[in-house]
Design a protein that fits this description.
alpha+beta, four-stranded antiparallel sheet, about 10% helix, about 90 residues, rod-shaped, single chain
């Protein structure tokens, strides 16, 4: 069950924990005046760790295409594994 914010005619605010379908009228616990439900601030976010980025949760397919788009990447997503380039310079 969610918690709802209410404000009375005398501008007192309070919270009530009740079901979504409970439409019974509310009265202020401080003054007894009629109260109306007001929009709540919503859920808060708590970020912990070194950071969160949009790329952290990309699909595997997206990551493979991004690797293929990088300069020097081979088709198929893996780099390396081939013959190394010839060494520049003289012979040993």
């Amino acid at each position: 069950m969610p918690t709802y914010d209410y404000r009375c005619e005398k501008n007192h605010t309070f919270e009530v924990f009740h079901g979504i379908k409970d439409d019974s009228p509310r009265t202020c616990p401080r003054c007894g005046a009629a109260a109306k439900r007001v929009p709540a601030g919503g859920g808060g976010f708590l970020f912990k760790g070194s950071g969160f980025y949009i790329t952290d949760y990309r699909s595997k397919n997206y990551k493979e295409r991004a690797k293929a788009d990088k300069p020097g990447a081979t088709p198929g997503g893996s780099s390396g594994g081939g013959t190394p380039p010839p060494a520049s310079g003289g012979k040993d």
